[in-house]
Amino acid sequence: MGKGFLTKGIVNITESMDRDDYILRYGILLEDVLISRDKALKRDKVSFTEDYICNRCGNNKLEKFYASNSKKCWEDLCGVGGMCIFCNKCMDIVEFERTEMS
Ligand SMILES: [Zn+2]
Cα of 87 to ligand 1 centre, how many Å? Predict the structure, then answer.
């Protein structure tokens, strides 16, 4: 997926943190999470949780949805999937619980 797919605001946030940081911390890229979120929103699969707090803005009504990375990653054995806790104010990952790996 190219960055042209995402809106400018999201790209700016994406670039504020290095791609490798996301991989090291969560095993998944923000881009993949945003794509998963889009799918989850369309299928009405996004719920809200108050069990976490965003450490950037203090938001404690966070989105919770299943996220996984691209099919290509799964074929290359770097696929991960799990529940993502996501701040829709910062448009960033707060927590990612990896439950599946290829
Ligand atoms: Zn936030």
Answer: 5
Distance from the alpha carbon of residue 43 to the mean position of ligand 1, in angstroms? 23
Q: Does the pLDDT at position 91 exceed 60?
A: yes
- Which has more confidence, 61 or 71? 61
pTM of the model: 0.80
Query: Phi/psi zone of residue 83: left (φ > 0), alpha (ψ -120 to 50 degrees), beta?
Result: beta
pLDDT band for position 19 (cuts 50, 70, 90):
confident
Q: Which two tokens stand for residue 23?
A: 């991989």
* Alpha carbons 87 and 100: distance in angstroms, whole number: 22
Alpha carbon of 76 to ligand 1 centroid (Å): 32
**3-class DSSP assignment, residue 96:** strand
Query: What is the rounded radius of gyration, in angstroms, for the C-alpha atoms of the chain?
Result: 13
